[in-house]
Design brief:
heterodimer, A: 170 residues, mainly alpha, Ferritin, 8 helices, elongated, B: 68 residues, alpha+beta, two-stranded antiparallel sheet, 2 strands, 15% strand
């Protein structure tokens, strides 16, 4: 049951895959000063994707098909067996339509901030739904990282405000 | 959730005057990154091991969940 919910952070709209691909794609066209930040956070999101994958894998690897069915993962088992797949908790496959790239630095950074806040909320709702102490610990860590990423993107907006201003000095 | 954490705000959703159900307080988080969107310099730090567990180096950006 928990694995089914965790899959939301694997292949969901505000999941770690969406986050990593969103940031690593935006960094080509963003001003130089914040490329490093997008590279840094985008790469970290891939590490988080691995953490989620490991949690889902370990929660399901020894379950019988019947147990998977009882946990609501019967459809997943029929389609994917014990392997993971990039879809959300409701079974919708991951799509690039989840992420955006407007080519406008401020619009893109505000999209990133919104994505971090949505991921933070998602982690809260998953934490509310489990009593597994080790999973809870890991999810609390991941939630805190979303808070810090949000902070870093907000700072990037401040950097760009200054940056735009400094360009006007002749 | 007792609302003792400074991060959390409470509200009661709209209800019709004829709603027979008792009002229920809901909560939402205003994380420290929203309140302080730019880091100050020379701030207190967690010890490295503790920072690794918490997910942040900075006590003022530590946002426990569920709130304490």
């Amino acid at each position: 049951m928990l694995a089914k919910m965790l899959i939301e952070q694997y292949g969901g709209a505000d999941g770690e895959l969406s986050a990593a691909l969103r940031y690593l794609n935006q960094r080509y066209s963003i001003p130089d000063k914040v490329i490093g930040l997008l590279t840094d956070i985008g790469t970290e999101e891939f590490a988080h994707l691995e953490m989620i994958a490991t949690m889902v894998y370990k929660l399901t690897k020894d379950a019988t098909p019947e147990q998977l069915r009882e946990a609501g993962l019967g459809d997943h088992y029929v389609n994917h067996g014990y392997s993971l797949f990039y879809h959300d908790a409701a079974g919708n496959p991951w799509t690039a339509a989840y992420i955006a790239s407007k080519g406008d630095p401020i619009a893109d950074l505000y999209e990133d901030i919104a994505a971090e806040e949505k991921a933070r909320a998602t982690y809260q709702w998953i934490i509310d739904n489990t009593d597994d102490p080790d999973i809870k610990d890991s999810l609390r860590f991941l939630r805190e990282r979303e808070v810090i990423h949000s902070l870093r993107f907000r700072e990037a907006v401040e950097i760009l405000k200054e940056y735009q201003g400094s360009k006007k000095v002749f | 959730m007792d609302g003792t954490s400074a991060e959390w705000r409470s509200y009661v959703n709209f209800r019709s005057p004829f709603d027979p159900c008792p009002a229920r307080v809901k909560w939402y988080d205003v994380p420290p990154a929203v309140t302080y969107p730019v880091q100050k310099s020379a701030r207190k730090q967690f010890a490295p091991q503790e920072a690794l567990r918490k997910g942040t180096l900075w006590p003022e950006y530590d946002s426990p969940y569920p709130p304490v």
